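Tutorial, part two.
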Amino acid sequence: MNIADDCVVTLAYTLRDSAGEVLDSATAAEPFAYVQGRRSVIAGLEKQLAGRAVGDKLDISIEPAEAYGEHSPARVQTVPRDRFPEGIDIEPGMQFHAGDEHGGRMPVRVTEVNEDGVVIDANHPLAGQTLHFAVEVLGVRAATAEELAHGHVHGPGGHHH
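Running the prediction step on this input gives:
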C-alpha cells in the first residue's frame, strides 16, 4: 500500500536544522504515527511522503513556506512585566499562553527580558527554518473509521484513550 490521504503512516525519522543539529527523532522501536492528509504533520512532509511505501528511505529538505512559515517580526512584541504572574522569575526560553485577537489562546516564548518589559515571540520556534528529515517509512495502512472521526492515530505510535 502506498501513502495516500486517510492512511495511517508510521515513521522513524531524524529532524535536523540547517546546521545539522538534531531537533527531533523517532525510532523504529518508538515510531511516530499520523494520519496522512489531516494536517497532523507539516505540509511539505505530507507532500514528500505521498505515494511512498513501506521500506522507503528518504532525505527530505522542506523550506519554511511548507513547514512552519517564515519568521514574522509582527509576531514579536514587548509586553509590560506586570502582565505576567507575580513571583515568577521570567527568563528567556520560558513559554506562556496569551490571548489572540479571536479570543483564542496561543503559545508564546520569552526571548528577552529587559527594563522595557518582556519580549515575547508568537512565531513557531521553527519558523523561518529549512528542515531536513531523514525518514524511513515503517508502516502504511488504512485508518479506521474511529481514527478518521477523531483525526488521529490510535494505538502504538499514536494517541491512546
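The chain has a mean pLDDT of 92. In part three we will examine how such features are distributed along the chain.
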